[in-house]
Design a protein that fits this description.
CATH class of the largest domain: Alpha Beta
Largest sheet: 8 strands, mixed
Order of helices and strands: EEEEEHEEHHEHHHEEEHHHHHEHHHEEH
Number of domains: 2
CATH architecture of the largest domain: 2-Layer Sandwich
Radius of gyration: 22 Å
CATH topology of the largest domain: Nucleotidyltransferase, domain 5
Distance between the termini: 29 Å
Bound molecules: adenosine monophosphate
Mean pLDDT: 95
Structural class: alpha/beta
CATH superfamily of the largest domain: ATPase, nucleotide binding domain
C-alpha cells in the first residue's frame, strides 16, 4: 500500500457492512492499488470492540465501543482522519456498497437513489441476514458523505444471465411465482473478477472462453462462465446449495428437512441453523478451518480424510457437470482462501481429470505462490490459480456507474 501520489488516481471507497462488522477499502481503480483498508468488529457489544486500519503496510489497532453502525462509521472516518489517507485530499469519486441480494431486479450495479434503496429493502426476505445491514451501511454513509455518488454492487447480478433451465427449480408454480423460489447464485463479483482476470492471464478474449471458476473459501461456489456470462452456478435460492463449505452442507436431498422434523424433533430454526452453521467441513470433522483438515488428513485422521474426500468428490462432480453444460471447458480457475492456498485439494480435483484433457502439473501446483498455471503448457484444458479481488471489482463497477452519470 502506498500513499496516493498518482496524479491520474481515481479512488473509490468500498464498503461491506455486515451485522456486527464493517470491512472497507480505499482503492485507486486506475492502478488497482489498495491505499488503505480496515475492519471494524464487534459492533453493538458496547465494550471490547476492535478495529484495524491499515495504510502503507502499517496496521493501526483501535479499541472502540460503537453500539451501532452510525458510531462504527464515525470510527472509519476518524481512522482516515488520524492515520490517512486524508479523504478530503484524495480524488474520491464514489462509494461502492457490496449488496448481497439484488433478486431479479438488478442485473448490474446501480446508482443508489431512494427507489433503489426501497428495492433493496423489498429483497430482505431473500437475504434477511445481509440486506438489512447493507442498507444501514448505505444510509449512514450517505449521511456522512452526502456529496459523493453511492453505488450498489450486487453479489447476485452476475448470475442474472443464467438461463431458465438452469435457474428454475422443478417445484409447484405458486412456490416460484408467489414466493420468488428460484436459483439466484452468489459470489458474483468474485466470479466476474476471476473470469476476466483468467482471460487476461491465458491471453485470449473472454468472449471466446469457457471457464469454470471454483471460489473455495469458507463459503464456496462453482460458476460456469461462457463468453464472459454466468450460465450456471452452484449456489441456489440461498448460499447454502452446492459445494461442501466450511459450515454449510451444500447439495442434499430436499426431504431431509421433513425427515429430521419427524425423526429428530428438529424445529425450523434449529434445522436452518444446523444446515448453515453446523454442517459442511465442521459437521464432518469438527473444524471448518481447511488448514486443520489438511494437517489432520496428513496425520491419518479418518474424519478429516472423509471431509476432504467428500469436498473433492463434489468438486469433481461439478467440474464434469459444468463441462457438459458448456459443451467443453477451456480453463479451470481456483480462487479464495482454499482455492488459492491448498495444493492438496487442487491436486485431488485435477489429477483425475485427464479424461477431460487436463494435464496436471504437480510440481507447479506444489511450488506456486499467488497467481499462475498448474497444468502443463501443452494441456488441452488449462488450470490456473487466480487470486480473487472482490473489492477491486466493486470499485471498478462503482466507477463505471459514476462515469456513466
Ligand atoms: P476465505 O473465506 O476465502 O477467507 O477462505 C477461508 C478458508 O481458507 C478457511 O477454510 C481456511 O482454512 C482456508 N485457508 C487459508 N489459508 C490456507 C492454507 N494455507 N491452506 C489451506 N487452507 C487455507
Amino acid at each position: 500500500m502506498t500513499t496516493p501520489t498518482n496524479p491520474d488516481a481515481r479512488h473509490v471507497l468500498v464498503i461491506n457492512a455486515g451485522s456486527s462488522s464493517i470491512k472497507y477499502q480505499l482503492l485507486d481503480v486506475t492502478s488497482g492499488v489498495t491505499q488503505a483498508k480496515g475492519l471494524i468488529e464487534r459492533i453493538g457489544e458496547g465494550h471490547g470492540g476492535h478495529a484495524a486500519h491499515t495504510v502503507n503496510g502499517v496496521t493501526h489497532e483501535i479499541d472502540h465501543s460503537a453500539m451501532n453502525h452510525r458510531e462504527a462509521f464515525e470510527i472509519l472516518r476518524a481512522a482516515f482522519a488520524e492515520h490517512g489517507p486524508d479523504l478530503a485530499q484524495v480524488q474520491l469519486e464514489g462509494v461502492g456498497h457490496r449488496i448481497v441480494h439484488g433478486g431479479t431486479f438488478f442485473d448490474g450495479p446501480a446508482l443508489i437513489t431512494g427507489g433503489v434503496a426501497e428495492q433493496i429493502r423489498g429483497l430482505i426476505p431473500l437475504a434477511p441476514l445481509h440486506n438489512p445491514h447493507n442498507l444501514t451501511g448505505i444510509r449512514v454513509m450517505q449521511q456522512l458523505f452526502p456529496d459523493l455518488p453511492h453505488v450498489a454492487v450486487f453479489d447476485t447480478a452476475f448470475h442474472t444471465t443464467i438461463p431458465a433451465p438452469a435457474h428454475t427449480y422443478a417445484v409447484p408454480e405458486y412456490w416460484r411465482t408467489e414466493h420468488a423460489v428460484r436459483r439466484y447464485g452468489a459470489h458474483g463479483t468474485s466470479h466476474a473478477y476471476v473470469a476476466r482476470r483468467t482471460a487476461e492471464l491465458v491471453g485470449r478474449p473472454l468472449d471466446e472462453l469457457r471457464i469454470i471458476v471454483l471460489h473455495l473459501g469458507n463459503g464456496a461456489s462453482a460458476c460456469a462462465v461462457q463468453g464472459g456470462r454466468s450460465v450456471e452456478t452452484s449456489m441456489g435460492m440461498t448460499p447454502a446449495e452446492g459445494l461442501v463449505m466450511g459450515t454449510r452442507a451444500g447439495d442434499m436431498d430436499p426431504t431431509l428437512a421433513a425427515h429430521l422434523f419427524r425423526s429428530a424433533g428438529l424445529g425450523v430454526e434449529a434445522y436452518d441453523r444446523e444446515v448453515n452453521h453446523a454442517s459442511g467441513l465442521l459437521g464432518l470433522c469438527g473444524t471448518n478451518d481447511f488448514r486443520e483438515v489438511t494437517e489432520r488428513r496428513a496425520a491419518g485422521d479418518a474424519d478429516a480424510t472423509l471431509a476432504f474426500d467428500v469436498t473433492a468428490h463434489r468438486l469433481r462432480k461439478y467440474v464434469g457437470a459444468y463441462t457438459a453444460v458448456m459443451e467443453g471447458v477451456d480453463v479451470i480457475a481456483f480462487t479464495a482462501g482454499i482455492g488459492e492456498h491448498s495444493p492438496e485439494l487442487r491436486e485431488a480435483v485435477l489429477a483425475r481429470l485427464g479424461h477431460l484433457g487436463v494435464e496436471f502439473d504437480a510440481d507447479a501446483n506444489e511450488s506456486l505462490r499467488g497467481e499462475g498455471p498448474i497444468t502443463t503448457s501443452g494441456s488441452k484444458v488449462a488450470a490456473w490459480v487466480v487470486p480473487t479481488n472482490e473489492e477491486l471489482e466493486i470499485a471498478r463497477q462503482t466507477l463505471a456507474v459514476v462515469d456513466a452519470g
